[in-house]
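Handoff note, outgoing to incoming analyst
You'll be picking up this chain. Sequence as last confirmed:
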Amino acid sequence: MATTAPTMKSARTKRVPMSALRKSSLAAGLFYIISFVSIPTLALYGSAKKSGYILGPGPDTPVLVGSLLELIVGLAGIGSAVALFPVIKRQNEAVALGFVASRTLEAATIFAGVVSLLSLVSLRQAGVGPDALVTGQLLAAQYTKTFLVGQALIPAVNGLLLGYLMYRSRLVPRALPVIGLIGAPILIASVIAKYFGVYDEVSVWSALAALPIAVWEFSLGVYLTVKGFKSCAITREITAEAASRESRVSHS
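Most recent structure output, in case you need it:
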């Protein structure tokens, strides 16, 4: 009896190792959730987008904090694509690779916009004076247009690519990718409208058009973090391959 109790206790407390599938879903889900940390930039960048920011008083901390948050978002976007790729490539490798490329391009445009704002802050801190007013306005405008491409158009492309892969593969409940597939054309139409000056980036119409893609990405992040991938042909195939490898190792 003295030797049985510790053995039973150790068996009960032994932790089951997390599978590769669960690690992928957890990493992708967390990266998607992290990508929403840049929401405060709508307020943090308020002063920087004003025409006289480069000459005005006040701290630069809000812009610096917002820039840091956007850098995190760009890296999280790449991380989510890399985490999902080994799984979604089994549905369609070409489309999955396109998704990774699109997420990387999104990050690149985010970084380009951040560089514009950091350059604006540097000029302001240098006290360049009224002679740099036009340059400051140009940098602010460059950020706005970069945002239009990097954080409006490309997320719509991401929604189409990943929405298609998730819908066909059934890795998540089909209701989730349907939101992305519906929201992507709406967001693209909104980008076109803003491109031709129908309405501004900061407007009710712009927010409504971006809402479905935001819901899709946040819901996907929460689902992958909490639930993981659903059982489907792809997950069964990956699980069978992992079991086969373990069997070969144990018999070697």
